[in-house]
Write a structure and sequence with these properties.
This protein has three helices and eight strands; from the N terminus they run βαββαβαββββ. It has about 140 residues and is of the alpha/beta class. It has a single domain, classed as Cytidine Deaminase, domain 2 (3-Layer(aba) Sandwich), CATH 3.40.140.10. The protein has an eight-stranded mixed β-sheet with strand order 7-6-5-4-2-3-1-8. Helix 3 links the parallel strand 4 and strand 5. The protein is globular. This is Proteasome lid subunit RPN8/RPN11. It holds the Pfam family Prok-JAB. Keywords: Hydrolase, Metal-binding, Metalloprotease, Protease, Proteasome, Zinc.
Length: about 140
């Protein structure tokens, strides 16, 4: 289960809307306690592809984010990206590029009036949804 604060959710939505029509992306740092994956910090990264259909994170920004996580005692919980005009589910490309089955992959859909955020575990190109609790 992902634990996310309401203001964190809002900041992801605002960042994704601000990057339209491109996909937005970032990393999630925090703690893992039992089955709970508690998000403490969101790292907004540049989509180097500048595409509405896929993303590539800037490697320098990724390294800086991980360095900051270590400084604060956080672990890498996972990443997020937006789908500007498609549902909140992993695309075939998302599944193909998901290399770590321990990571949480959050996808924010902006296709409807209200944004929809869902989280997935992906292993061997098979996705399973994990719950998100927004506090």
């Amino acid at each position: 289960m992902i634990i996310l604060k309401k203001d964190q959710f809002q900041s992801i939505v605002e960042y994704a809307r601000g990057n339209l029509p491109e996909e937005a992306c970032g990393l999630l740092g925090g703690y893992i306690k039992n089955e709970k994956r508690i998000i403490e910090k969101i790292y907004f990264l540049t989509n180097l592809d500048h595409s509405p259909e896929h993303f590539s994170m800037d490697a320098k920004e990724q390294f800086a984010a991980v360095k900051n996580m270590r400084k604060h005692g956080y672990v890498l919980i996972g990443n997020f990206h937006s789908h500007p005009s498609s549902p909140s589910r992993p695309s075939e490309e998302d599944k193909r590029l998901a290399f770590d089955p321990l990571m949480s992959y959050l996808i924010l859909s902006l296709a409807e009036k209200d944004p929809i955020l869902r989280s997935f575990k992906i292993e061997n190109k098979i996705s399973s949804e994990e719950s998100i609790n927004i506090l």
